[in-house]
Write a structure and sequence with these properties.
The chain is an alpha/beta fold. It has ten helices and seven strands. It has a seven-stranded parallel sheet. Helix 1 links the parallel strand 1 and strand 2.
Amino acid sequence: MTWQDRLTVVLVEPRNPLNIGAAARAMLNFGFSRLALVAPYEVAFREARSAVGAKTILDRAQVTGSLDDAVSEATLVVGTGTQQGRVRRQPRRLLPESAASLRAHLERGRAALLFGSEKFGLSNEHLSRCHWILQIPTNPHCPSMNLGQAVALCCWELAREATRPASRGARSLPPAGQLDRIVERLTTLLGASGYLNPRTRASNLLKIQRLVRRLELSPADAQVIEGMLRQMAWKWG
């Protein structure tokens, strides 16, 4: 498996067939082949299958209704954003720095790179699943980028980074699916204890999701914490 095979490009709720096709074509240009589409507009996805040169990638694309399913095997989940929008709640890294960190991780682990819908971008809930945000330094007076162009720019930067010596300092991280289980068990226990207010549960859940990812747990630590929470739930259940 090459480092390109360890990256999944995830398009969340895409609507424009031209953008889906352009994203697939850009992936092909720079050697990437794993594409996932979360809740795509059905008509758009069907029409995008005719995109020149991208048929194989589109035919093999994972289509799911849940972001969690699309990123469950990834040990690093990175969202994308511009200078403006919802990214201020998450750690941010500019594109060149992001590409270096992501490329180093791909030497030995799976990663998912998320792009939001053309209309709304990535929501706070989507971003709460991310370890950090890749920020494309666009002009503040014109911050929004075309989806296909954003995918092409990020893929190009990753491919360019591949010409440099790979960093050996990247840490191993647990899969996103395991982090989701930790959040779920922790949230259940906090709710049972009365810590979580039912009226603010949704916002608190996003905070917990972001907190767990900021900890950057090692796989061994994540396994221990999940076991602890499982035992606590069994004891107090």
